[in-house]
Every structure is written in C-alpha cells, then in structure tokens.
Amino acid sequence: MSMVRIGTGAGFQGDRIGPAVDLAERGALDFLVFECLAERTIALAQQARLADPSAGFDPLLERRMRAVLPACARNGTRIVTNMGAANPRAAAERTRAVVRELGLTLSVAAVTGDDVLDRIGECTLTETGAPARALGARLISANAYIGVSGIVEALEAGADIVICGRASDPALFLAPLVYRFGWAMVDWERLGRGTLVGHLLECSAQITGGYFADPGVKDVPGLAEVGFPLAEVSEDGNAVITKLPGTGGLVSRATCTEQLLYEIHDPARYLQPDVVADFSRVELEEIGPDRVRVTGGSGHTSTGQLKVSVGYRDGWRGEGQISYAGANCVARGRLAADLVRQRLSDLGDRILELRADLIGLDAVGLGGTAQPSEVRLRVAARCADQEAAQRVGEEVESLYLCGPAGGGGVSRAQREIIAVASTLLPAASVTVQSALSETLGA
Amino acid sequence: MKLHEIAHARTGDKGDVSNISVIAYRPEDWPRIVDALTPDRVAAHMGGVAAEDVTRYVLPQLHALNFVIRGALKGGVTRSLALDAHGKCLASVLLDLEL
C-alpha cells in the first residue's frame, strides 16, 4: 500500500453531517475519522452515564452512523471515532443495532481503558497543586488521553468501525496510519508526521476555509457548502491535504499554516501519548488548486506520561442579558449593571465571582471610546448553589420594570458548572483494550 | 497601518492558555512583523496581560509567529465567566495593533 486516503467526518460534537456523507460517498477513502470530544464533553457524558448506565456516549452517534454507513460499507471505508465518550461499549452496541437495521455487515469494536478515575486520587492537579482526592465528592471523572494501541489492535482484528472514548485527537488519525503502514512505535519521525496529519485534519473545516474568512482580506469561495478535508498520506508520513472537487471552501498555504499552529504551544514539542511531535520545521507548498503538500514533520521519544482530564463539579453559573439602544445606551447599560450588583449583594459569599460586560462595547474585545448604537448587558456569576445562580437571571429580568429606561430582550440561563483540571499518569499504569465481539466485556 | 493589512491570525485554547498565530501574507512583510511583534508589544496591546506570560515562537519558513499567553482565559473554557471563554476573538483583537 503506497498511499492512504484519510478524511475528517467531524471536528467537534456539533459538527455538520452533510460534508461527512459527501466524503463517504465520493472520497474513495480508506478511513473516515469523527473527532467529537472536547475537554469538558467527557465529564458531562460521565454524568449522563451515572444517571443511566446505557448512556454516556455522543448524542449524535446514531444520526452520524445512519448517514455515512451505507456509503462506507459500499466503498470499504473504515471508521474511527471517539464518539464513545464515557461509554464506548454502549456506543458500539448502539452502532451494531444501526448496522443491523441498515442490513449491512460491518464489525464494530469498542476501545476502553481511558477511564482512570479509580487511580488518580494521589495525583497532583496541575491547576491547583493539590491531590485529586481533595475534590472529594465533587470529583466526577478522570480520563487519560490514550494513544493508538487500542485502535490499532481493533483494526488488526478486522473492525470496520472503531469506537473509543478519550483518546488524543491526533491519535484517531495516527492509528490507521500505524496500522496500514506498519510503522514501528519507536519510529519517532513517522509517528511525528502522522501526528501532524492528524493535527491538521482533526478540526474538519478549520483547514478548508472555516474559522478563516475575513471579507475583503481573506475571502473564501462557497463557504456555505464548505467541504471537509482529506489527506493523501505516503508511507514516509508526508502528505497532501485537499478536499473533494465541487465542494466549497479552500485549502491553501494560509489555511494550513493557521491550522498547523492552532492550539499549539512550543511547535517543536507537541506532547502526545505516543510521541513528542515536532512541527517546527514543517514546510507547506501549494501544488495545485486546493492541494497543499506537507513535509518536514518530525518527532522525538515519547514522555511515558499520559495527560489525564479530570472533571469536577464547581458550583453553579447564572446569567442574564438585556439590551439598550440609542441615545446614552452605554450609560444606561452601566447603570443596569450597578443595580444588579447591588440587588445581589444580600447573597454575600454565595456569589463566588461575578462579571458584567456590555456586549458591543467591551465583552470580547478591549473596549473603545466610540459610542455604539446599542449595547447588551450580560451579567454572569459563578455561585455556590443553584438558588443563587437563579437569582442572577431574575435580577436581570426584573430590570424590565425596575431598571433604567428602555431595556429590552431579556434572556437568562443557569447550569451546573463542570470544570476540568489536568494531571499526569505513567503510561504503564493505563491498560487499553479493544473488544470486537458483542459479548466480550459486556 | 494596522497589522491586519499585512498579516492574518488564529486563536487556539488549551485550559487557561491562549495561543495566537500571526502569519504574514507576503514574505516581504515578514521582517517587519518579526521586529514589531515582541512579547512586550503584544502584552501591552492585549490589555491585562503581563509580558512575562507571553512566549513567542518563530517559524521563519512559514513566515509565522506563535504567541502563547498564559492565564489569558480567566480560568479556562470550562470555568471562565467570559462571553468568549475560548478566546476565539483574540486573534482579531491582535490584528488591530497599530504598526
């Protein structure tokens, strides 16, 4: 096998489904990868599983599978995904049911072992410097970012669909390359290059023109029908990033450079479970329309440590918003913010942190001196309890009658805060397994 | 002249750390960008950011800089009360920098 074609079916939990179907139908792909797990998603999924032992996987799993499986089966495209979230086995079960309903013959494997909640009590949390056990009953979940081993094992066992939970995002793409090319797990250069391919692809449209357009400066053609990316990967790990003909968007040196550095700290040391990838000497070359050749990736010996994402309950969050427009709107917005602060003061230390912004003036940028034609007050607070969080929205809503002139369009919300901290575990203390049969490990 | 005229940028987030890439459109503007965008200058522009919390990485072959800003996200996406908890808007804020 001289080349592997691997594409992205999703870059986050809520991603668009149509472009994945297009890739499944027309991509002539060997592998289609769905990356659907963000930092906090797995803690939320763990809560869902606690409430219902058959839940805790991606809510869109069934929709995505129904949409792409017929074409994947027809074209021999195998699927790798982390849609298992907190419950890969239940996700595999549900997927098998979809496969049967569609009248297809596809084998499904679950990869487990990332759940390390039972062994992180003494581990120090990077953010607080305290051991995880100090969180007591607030601790919800601990999942290690596992590498390629379980996925490779499942592919070797013949799985058409591999479903895992918390794996490192690039590992979802690296694993099929390791499997197909037979790369040694000490071939740091190839592992680094495969990680680079995964990193470039893992956010779907972010490399094909999404998160990029800036009208008049960086225009993107056909963004409404943006295609998802695919890579043509050679045995040496170098690759061409492209997208399907007839799709919208664009693959250029500029889109690839932005994505290369997305969520990267030191480009020479991108820490992964199986390798320390080195992107510092990567070269990007436009070799045709929507075709960029990627070379120069490298890697170094892995650290032997796995990052662990620790989810914990961190109080409640209450929020309210109200708009002011026209003459003197900024002053009325500021008065409204002062009133809410005063009216919440009886809650004392049940309000742990509070911020008030004027959207349109200083909420997401640095603020300015120009008078906007409208502003929207947003008050958000982290509270010790649900009742206090509810009061935040109530005090914003009551500004209708008891606040400054001309406030309109109130919205309010509250939710429990699931925060995420991180720690490290020796890789040797984490055992990853894959289960292909429906009965194994059930 | 604003940085926006000669460079593009993208923000990423991990925990409480924001990274902003800044990339020259044209090779001839690259030296000017490297000279102007010191960590001090970036920290001063971003407001409320200390210079020692900004680390700059240089990728000359891509005409790209990568700024890593620690503590930029008020506790990170899962805890922050900020409207844009990811800091997705920060790259465009940086492009407003006057050269």
Describe this entry's structure for a reader:
- The complex is a heterodimer of chains A (442) and B (99).
- Chain A has 442 residues and is of the alpha+beta class.
- Chain A has two domains: 3-115 and 144-302 and 429-435, no CATH class; 310-422, Alpha-Beta Plaits (2-Layer Sandwich).
- Helix content of chain A is 28%, strand content 28%.
- Chain A has helices at residues 18-26, 41-51, 61-75, 88-101, 149-156, 169-181, 188-201, 253-260, 329-344, 386-397, 399-402, and strands at 3-10, 31-34, 78-81, 108-112, 139-144, 161-163, 229-234, 239-243, 270-271, 276-278, 283-288, 291-295, 298-300, 305-325, 351-359, 374-383, 408-426, 433-435.
- In chain A, the strands form three sheets. A ten-stranded mixed β-sheet of chain A has the order 11-12-8-7-1-2-3-6-4-18, sandwiched between helices. In chain A, strands 5, 14, 15, 16 and 17 form a five-stranded antiparallel β-sheet that branches. A three-stranded antiparallel β-sheet of chain A has the order 9-10-13, with helices on one face.
- In chain A, helix 3 (61-75) crosses helix 4 (88-101) and helix 5 packs across helix 6 (169-181).
- Chain B has 99 residues and is of the alpha+beta class.
- Chain B has three helices and four strands.
- A four-stranded antiparallel β-sheet of chain B has the order 1-2-4-3.
- Chain B is elongated, with a radius of gyration of 13 Å.
- The interface between A and B is large, with 45 and 35 residues.
Structural class label of chain B = alpha+beta
| Percent of residues in beta strands of chain B | 25-35%
Mean pLDDT of chain B: 92
CA-based shape of chain B: elongated
Largest sheet of chain B, in brief, is:
4 strands, antiparallel
| Percent of sequence in beta strands of chain A | 25-35%
Uncertain parts of chain A: none
- Strands of chain B, total number: 4
Q: Which strand order spans the largest sheet of chain A, edge to edge or round the barrel? A: 11-12-8-7-1-2-3-6-4-18
**Helicity range of the residues of chain B?**
10-25%
Average per-residue pLDDT of chain A, rounded, comes to 95
Cα Rg of chain A = 24 Å
Rg of chain B is: 13 Å
> For the largest interface in this structure, which chains are involved and how many residues does each contribute?
A-B, 45 and 35 residues
- Quaternary arrangement of the chains shown? heterodimer
Structural class of chain A: alpha+beta
Strand order of the largest sheet of chain B: 1-2-4-3
Q: Shape of chain A, please?
A: globular
Alpha-carbon distance between the two ends of chain B: 6 Å
> What's the CATH architecture name of chain B?
2-Layer Sandwich
